[in-house]
Each structure stands twice: as structure tokens, then as C-alpha cells.
Amino acid sequence: MTVFNLGVAELRTRQSMKWQTYPADVLPLWVAEMDVKTHPAVKAAVFAELEAGDTGYPAGRRYADAYRAFAARHWGLELADAQVKQSGDVMNSMLGVLQTVTSPGDAVVLNPPVYPPFYTIVERYQRKVVPANLTPDGRLDLAAIAEILAGPAHPRAFLLCSPHNPTGTVHTHQELAELVRLCAANDVALIVDEIHSPITHAGTGFTPILSVPGSERAIAVMSAGKAWNLASFKGGLVIGGTAAGDVLDRLPALLLQSMGHMAAIAHSTAMNEGDAWLAEYLGEVAANKQLLGRLLSEHVPAANYLPGPGTYFAWVDCSALGLDSPATHFRQAGKVAFNDGTAFGKEFGQWIRVNLATSPEIITEAIRRLANSL
Questions:
Q1: Mean pLDDT (whole number) for 319-327
Q2: Domain spans of the chain?
Q3: pTM over 0.85
Q4: Cα separation of 300 and 333, whole Å?
Q5: CATH code for the part of the protein at 8-38+275-373
Q6: CATH 3.40.640.10: does it fit domain 47-273?
Q7: What pLDDT digit, counting tens, does each position of 219-237 carry?
Q8: Which residues are 191's β-sheet partners?
């Protein structure tokens, strides 16, 4: 049985952001929600708590323990209990770490195109963005990064998305090792968003930042929310290197108290019992990426798409289509909602991000509408 088997009629009854933001005649393939049913074990665990009336405050370390077991099982990463802190969600965790290791006015390096909230937690909290754009093929530009870290901007922190959202790039061990070296040499705090780490195709070789030599002071943030479609259950993790205990100890107290009891239940169950389900849908996502490539080649050959092995998104270059704003055009003329590339970096307005965590039928219809709009 496939995971992505829900039709539009059923999905239209959902009350979450993806299916409620646009009118009913617009097909949404944008925000990071998956068109799936809740994992059976997660559903059973949450229902059991509700049936028992166990809806109080969270207790214990079940989520941290589940992540430690997951990291050891999938990546051979062994973590001590003290290295993992439970928190409210990934971006508030990243913000809390950033505020702990930097001061207002400090420069922070990002790698555009990058997840829009990265800009929010830097700019809205009085820090300055220093861009180090990915190369045209989506890799870290280590030469440019070296120049920036040693340059007059004097960055105090580097925010890395690993795997990278929206490109799907999975950074190699060698790339991460050099980035760790550069940050250490220039006294730059390295903070890594690894929320997409379980959503990496088999054989790709995701490398946790804390498995890289020299990463003792690095900090990773993580959640089961993306991989098992649990965004409504707010829960996150902050994972420190073996020498990052002083940073973990100085994190805002309320950040570490902001995870809900149901989130702990849902996320830990997903990580403990969701491996087979994860493998199934990653296979379906890989097939959807191939499908998108074929459909674009057949119907919109001017669109340029290079599939990435991490995340369930596609990052599509529409520059050759001659549109002022591809995302706006496709929404208005084609009745399909994609993420506008501008949100990922002001120079990426000719790009769209496509959510492929849905059925092949919905993807096919979306590209049919896209082609017709042209």
C-alpha cells in the first residue's frame, strides 16, 4: 500500500495551512506538509493518551532518548544524554542558540537560497545577514565561505541547513569537515538545522554535523515534525557537541520547557516505530522526483530541474519561461500554488519550490495546469 494515496476531495477537508491558504480552485504544492495519513503507531499512541485523559504537562526524556536511539541506528552517532535537550520546535531552538552565542549587531552567515525563517531569526532579532550563496549546482562554496569568515564582516555565527532546503543538497562529509575547520579557525559558532536529515534517499550518506571531527562546539537542531508530518505537535531538540555544554546550559529556560506532552508522545513514537514507513515514502518521493523530471521535460522543457537527494522538495528554475514572477503566474493563471523563490533569497524570484510529498496524480495535474498556463 502506498503512503501518498489521498485524493484531492479528501485533502480539501483539512484545516491546516497547506489546504486552507488558497481558494478551492488552487492546487497547493507549497508549504512543508505531506499529503498522508498519520503513522498508525503515532495515531494509536496519541489516541491512547487522549482516551486516558493524560493531557497534562510533559515529563521525562522520552523524545531525547528516541532521537539518541534513532541517530545511533541510522548514522552510528552515539550521543550522551546530556548532549540532547528537548525544546519547543526547530526554529525557536535555532533562535535560542543564536541569541546565546551572538549579540545584536553581529553578522551571521547564511547559504541562499535557504529556508525563509533563517532570515527571520537573524534580521528580526537585530543581527545582520551575510550571504554565502550556494554554487550553481547547489554545493557549499567553500572558497567564498573561507573569504567571508576571515573578512571584515567578522561573522559570529554560521547557520547551515543540512540537508539543504530548498535544493535537496546533502552536504558531503568532506564539505562539512572543511566548514567545521573554517568555523573553528575563525571562532564562528556553527549552528545546523538537521530537520530534513531523515528525509534523505537511501545510499546518499547523510552526515550528522556532530559526527565530523572538530565539531565538538557545534550545535544541531532537530525534530521529527518534517519526516513524519507532525508539525501540529510542537516539539524540537537541541543537540550539542561534546564541548558545547556551556552553550546548552545558557539556553533560555522557557525554550527548554516549551515542548508539549502530546508532542513528546507523537515524535518519540515516530522515531521509535516509524522506520519502515519512512523507507516506503522515501521510495515514493524518489519516484515523484523522477515523475516531475519527465513531466517538465515533456510539457515545460524550458524549466530547469536538478533533483536533490535530500528533502521532498523540488527546486525548479523557471528563468527561461519569460515570466515576471513564475510563482504568481502559476497561481493566478494555472491555479497551482508553489513557493515563490524570492522567499529563499531576493535574487531567486525566477525559481519555485515544489512540494512532492503527495500523490503522482496530484503532481501530474499540477504540471498539466502549469503547462496550460503557458
A1: 98
A2: 8-38+275-373, 47-273
A3: yes
A4: 15
A5: 3.90.1150.10
A6: yes
A7: 999 999 999 999 999 999 9
A8: 159, 219
